[in-house]
Amino acid sequence: MTDDAIVYQLALAARQKKRRKRPKSLASPQQRATPQRLPEERGYSPAQRQGRQAEDRALALLEAEGLRILGRNLCCKGGEIDLVALDGNTLVFVEVRHRTHLQFGSAAASVNLQKQRRLVRAAHYFLPTLARRHFGGHMPRCRFDLVCDEPGGLTWLQHVFNE
User: Cβ contacts of residue 51 below 8 Å, gap of 6+?
Assistant: First the structure.
């Protein structure tokens, strides 16, 4: 055989092999029956999903205590605020910390000075917008709270640090 004939035979064999593969739509029923993750869970690690669930529990706790939730997961270059709520006429910035066990310390102990500074920076970033939207442009009193989700249950700590 000549070189052109060999190349032709190889190309023909590759094309036939490609045709033999089953399209994904015709996959076996067992493959199609595998459970898919919910859209809100896609792309999140197990730790991120646990954190999200802890935020959901914290949100339910705060609403049960009478706070009105204004925002969730507000992100900026300076940091992230997990929850923003309204307690009377006080604007509350809430950090949610989750611990599955207390081997490395409590959830409250994990909010160190560096984390506090990031929270304050993020609060300063969002404060003008929140004041304009919910307080008619007047600067409200602000408070930083912490919700700890630990094996013993949820704990809501109010006014955990000052700006």
Answer: 96, 98
Q: CB count, 10 Å around CB of 61? A: 17
DSSP string covering 99-154: -S-STT--TGGG--HHHHHHHHHHHHHHHHHHHHHHSTTPPPEEEEEEEEEETTEE
| Predicted local confidence at residue 20, as pLDDT | 61
Residue 63 has pLDDT above 80, yes or no: yes
DSSP 38: P
Query: Whole-angstrom Cα distance, residue 102 to residue 148?
Result: 12
pLDDT digits over 127-141, tens only?
999 999 999 999 999
* Centroid of chain to Cα 105: 22
Q: Which residue has the tokens 């029923």?
A: 29
pTM assigned to the model: 0.72
CATH number of 46-157: 3.40.1350.10
